[in-house]
Amino acid sequence: MRMKNNMTANVEYRKSRSLSLGLSNSQLASQKDQAFVIGFGYRTADFRFPFGLFSNFNLKNDLNFKLDVAIRDNKTVIYRADVNDPEISAGSKNITFRPSIDYVINQKFNLRLFYDSNVTKPYTSQTFVTAFTNFGVNLRFTIQ
Q: Contact, 134 vs 115, CB < 8 A?
């Protein structure tokens, strides 16, 4: 959704479930996946830095700020005929944080500053809690 003041907002919710029945070992496997994403953005055509060394510097072209936060939960549960309690065999909870800034230098060049953080917390002891972070600068040249 884009508003009149050039702010954008998006919300996304996904949910899925699949079942598989194994007749040879009398078990039912249930895979559940849920994802919730929320994002905000702002576009300005005349940005002025509010503080610091660049406070008198004015950017004339389009500047886009964007922030996405996502939480994803996937889990595989096994139900057996001879065992009363279900068993979690796989799955994890992922939390993602992605801010970025895009600046259109001219029609052919686009400069992007980005940060990407992802934390994975597993439901089983077979894997470890992992976290990774990517950040950097991307310069895009468009040929038309």
A: yes
Task: Kindly list the domain boundaries of the chain, sorted by start residue.
Answer: 7-141
Q: What is the pTM of this model?
A: 0.77
Q: Which two tokens stand for residue 99?
A: 């801010």
Per-residue model confidence (pLDDT) at position 26: 85
- Which one has a higher pLDDT value, 69 or 85? 69
Strands, DSSP E only, in 4-108?
A: 7-22, 27-44, 47-48, 58-59, 63-80, 87-104
- Evaluate whether 76 touches 90 at the Cβ level (below 8 Å): yes
2: which DSSP letter?
Answer: B
Residue with tokens 């500047």: 63
Cβ 97 vs Cβ 132: under 8 Å: no
* Model pLDDT, residue 49: 63
Q: Tell me the pairing of strands 47-48 and 58-59.
A: antiparallel
Question: β-strand 109-122 against 87-104: which pairing, if any?
Answer: antiparallel
Confidence category of residue 57, pLDDT binned at 50, 70, 90: low
pLDDT of amino acid 115: 96
